[in-house]
Amino acid sequence: MDVTVPSRGQLRLGKVDGNLYIEDGGVIEVEGEELVVAGSVICHGDAEIRGSVRAEAFEGRYREEGFRRFQREGGRIRVQGNLNVRNEVDVRGRLGVKGGLSAREVDIGGALEVDKEVFCESIDVGGKLDVGGKLKTSSLSVGGSAHIGGETEAERVNVGGKIELEGLCKIRSLRCGGKADVSGGEIDDIDVGGSFECTGELSFKKINVGGKVALKKGKGEQIDVGGKLEASGDLGVEEIDVGGAVEVDGSLEGRSVDVGGSVRVGGDMTLSGDIDVGGAIRVKGLGKMRSLDVGGSIEADGVVAEEDAEIGGKVSTSRGLKARRIRLGRRGSAFGPLIGEDVRIGREAEVEDVYAGYLELESGASARNLYVQRARIGRGCRIYGTVKYLEFVGVESDANGSAPPEKVQSLPAPPL
């Protein structure tokens, strides 16, 4: 048998065998632990249920007046306890639940506020979502902003504006048009139009962000950021592609790094592949990579590249830069030893000690000490220390040295 609560009326109910209709402004006082409705709860306009309710379906329809049908501005449905629905919750306006919410599907046209936990297969909110406790769902879609106070477990999360996840999360795919703030956990695929920030440890596969990424400590496969990447702890990422700057307070491990601006690492930097930086690199510890290409400068305790090291500006190391092939650009400089099989120093560049299988100093370059198998010293070069070689040294005109090159039986071991 169906029951109807008249407009602005009030009933006390504990059980309804059929459907329950609540007209605009109706109030229900729940008798007992919860109101059990065998059919659907259908609300027209504002409604309030003072207690918990269990039903097959829950609807918030448009209010009817005469021949017109419209949704009243600011109208909302309030449930003062738990809302447990077997099938679908479909509310055109706003829904507030003081307890927990469980349903197969939830579709809210306006805002959804739940003080405790939410368990649903899918959730679609047109405006704002605010959940105080844990959220578990397969699919979450929010047109405006979303806030989850507890843990979040979901397959797909899509938010048009801002999302805040205060508890640990386990998400396969996160899409956000604006800003995403999370506390840590596991997110496989992250795509954010604005900025992404994680205050705890994060495990991920891919991060794609248009603006800024700020992590505490993370490990993943790929980061692609249009602006800036920050990490306050250690960071382990296979591929990093950043348009602006990278700042890691701890150590950095991965395969490849491609940065348009600058890179700063507070510990060691260990890469199995290449690093390509348009501006400057600063590494407090030791930098290791397969190849190095920096348009500006590099500063580190030491740098070891398995293949090529190409520097457009300045090299500053305590222990030295070692690579199979080293290229220092025109008017560049190197403070600290350079060690390589094939070393080329550009025109008018300045270096200190060089250990090389083959060394070429282009015209106008200067060096301190050279320890080489073979070398060619160009016109106008200046050598302030000694030149020791195993096979030969070719010196062009106008090159100056403090002493003539000395052929030796063995060369001193390089420092790195």
Give a verbal description of the structure:
- This protein is an all-beta fold.
- Among the domains are: 1-116, no CATH class; 309-416, no CATH class.
- The protein is 0% helix and 65% strand.
- The protein contains no helices and 50 strands.
- The protein is rod-shaped.
Q: Helix fraction?
A: under 10%
Number of strands: 50
Uncertain regions spanning at least 5 consecutive residues: 65-74
Quick one: overall form?
rod-shaped
Count of helical regions:
0
Distance, first to last CA: 88 Å
Write the layout of secondary structure elements.
Blueprint: E1 3-5, E2 10-13, E3 15-16, E4 20-22, E5 26-37, E6 40-44, E7 47-55, E8 57-61, E9 63-65, E10 68-70, E11 76-79, E12 83-85, E13 88-91, E14 94-97, E15 101-108, E16 112-114, E17 118-125, E18 129-131, E19 135-142, E20 146-148, E21 152-159, E22 163-165, E23 169-176, E24 179-182, E25 185-192, E26 195-198, E27 201-209, E28 212-215, E29 217-225, E30 228-231, E31 235-242, E32 245-248, E33 252-259, E34 263-265, E35 269-271, E36 274-277, E37 281-289, E38 291-294, E39 298-311, E40 314-317, E41 321-328, E42 333-335, E43 338-345, E44 354-361, E45 366-367, E46 370-377, E47 382-383, E48 387-395, E49 400-401, E50 406-407
Parallel strand pairs: 1-4, 2-5, 3-5, 4-6, 5-7, 6-8, 7-11, 7-12, 8-13, 11-14, 12-15, 13-15, 14-16, 15-17, 16-18, 17-19, 18-20, 19-21, 20-22, 21-23, 22-24, 23-25, 24-26, 25-27, 26-28, 27-29, 28-30, 29-31, 30-32, 31-33, 32-34, 33-35, 33-36, 34-37, 35-37, 36-38, 37-39, 38-39, 39-40, 39-41, ...
Antiparallel strand pairs: 9-10
